[in-house]
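Readers outside the structure-tokenisation community will struggle with the description of the input data as it stands. Showing the layout once, in full, would remove most of the difficulty. For illustration, here is how one protein appears when written out as sequence plus structure tokens:
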Amino acid sequence: MVKEWSVFKLSRLKVILAIVALMFPLAGCVTGTAQLQVSPLTESEVRVFTDPITENILQAMNTGNYTQYTRDFDKSLKDNLPQNIFDKANSARIETVGTYVSKEHWRMSQKGDKITVAYRAEFTYEPAGVIVTVYFKNISGKWYVDGLLFYSPLMQSSDC
């Protein structure tokens, strides 16, 4: 039984790798995807826009304001997070870790037109704190949120 499982996993991995390998040559053929050249920014330059955007997101979670929450999201993220999903996830988060209290900048990185910023945030029910990671993408000279991740021990152990 162990050998069958290993063979199955190996075969599945080969299929996935083959699909990924086939996609790479196609990446250069896509039209209209020219990447904007973005100069590296200092931490203080990044925090000028990331801190207020992140604060807005966290405050909007406390009030359940979907419009405010998605204000700085790129089109793809906004399209993939309709209000009913936000409402359900936000309720689960409040039940699990409570409401947002404060945040402290932890770290950041930039790779071209993408910036990742992580904060250690305090929530009312989570004694260990919550790591809030916000992913930004520069689209036509403006920075938009294109990803958001929350991690805490309480969230990890629940269905949140």
